[in-house]
Design a protein that fits this description.
Keywords: Acyltransferase, Amino-acid biosynthesis, Cytoplasm, Repeat, Transferase. Its EC number is 2.3.1.30. Pfam families: Hexapep. It catalyses: L-serine + acetyl-CoA = O-acetyl-L-serine + CoA. The chain has 261 residues and is α/β, with parallel strands linked by helices. It folds into two domains: 192 residues, 3 Solenoid (UDP N-Acetylglucosamine Acyltransferase, domain 1), CATH 2.160.10.10; 60 residues, no CATH class. Helices cover 41% and strands 13% of the residues. It has a six-stranded mixed sheet. Strands 1-4-7-10-13 form a five-stranded parallel sheet. β14 and β15 form a beta hairpin. α3 packs antiparallel against α4. The radius of gyration is 25 Å and the shape is elongated.
Length: 261
């Protein structure tokens, strides 16, 4: 019991640079208080003392602002930073070394009995305000950006952002150093979406426009070559484009560039 408590305290020091000493962590970290009370409630829940377990869970919510159903299964070195507004549903399964920030919901999308809530693998990080809804798996080492809404499985090592959540980084085969470098480049932030974080849809549109520009240049070169071979070759006119149709794309690109600047 005390070994697990020491392990939990060490995990706080490892993941929160604001932690100064053990006494401060024990007395002023609601995430740790909620975890300790949950372990008691979960033990009573498994003994069949459902009402008492739910009562302890309710008291824990009053004291910490964190609601963890006593039926939820939580692994070792679990850490909730700040914690206010965190909700963890009954059939949630959480692996080891998982970190949640404030406002996270691990919820369900069905009123049916059985598995309704997500399963988080080892080392998962869920940013502030994110919602993970449904009975699917979030792979080991995955990261969910702040305020994202995730409703389907997340691959191991991936980074997910947006509403609905989209995978912007897949790094299953990469080592930890390369993974961290990629996350910094893509702008993963547990607290908020930074100016550097690309919108996946806007990025896809820009990629398509770049590809179309390259294709246009290649076709233009082919037409010039055909004209040299046959002076009578007539290059047909392309249909005109309305500049108004591209205003939103220009605005999006301009905003992205000004954000990087």
């Amino acid at each position: 019991m005390f070994d697990r408590l020491k392990e939990d305290i060490r995990s706080v020091f490892h993941r929160d640079p604001a932690a100064r000493n053990t006494f401060e962590v024990l007395t002023n970290y609601p995430g740790l208080h909620a975890l300790l009370l949950h372990r008691l409630a979960h033990w009573l829940w498994n003994l069949g003392l459902k009402w008492l377990a739910r009562t302890i869970s309710t008291i824990s919510r009053w004291l910490t602002g964190i609601e963890i159903h006593p039926g939820a299964t939580i692994g070792r070195r679990f850490f909730i930073d700040h914690g206010m507004g965190v909700v963890i549903g009954e059939t949630t399964v959480i692996g080891d070394d998982v970190t949640l920030y404030q406002g996270v919901t691990l919820g369900g999308t069905s009123w049916n009995k059985g598995k309704r809530h997500p399963t988080l693998g080892n080392g998962v990080v869920v940013g502030a305000g994110a919602k993970i809804l449904g009975p699917f798996e979030v792979g080991d080492g995955a990261k969910v950006g702040s305020n994202s809404v995730v409703t389907k499985a997340v691959p191991e090592g991936a980074t997910v952002v947006g509403i609905p959540g989209r995978v912007i980084v897949k790094s299953v085969s990469e080592d930890d150093a390369r993974r961290r470098e990629m996350e910094e480049r893509m702008g993963f932030d547990a607290y908020g979406v930074t100016d550097e974080m690309p919108d996946p849809v806007a990025r896809a549109v820009r990629s398509l426009l770049d590809h179309m520009h390259a294709v246009d240049e290649r076709i233009e070169n082919m037409c010039k070559a055909l004209h040299k071979l046959d002076s009578e070759y007539r290059n047909g006119e392309l249909p005109p484009l309305d500049d108004k149709d591209f205003d939103c794309v220009r605005d999006d690109v301009g905003d992205s560039e000004s954000g990087r600047a």
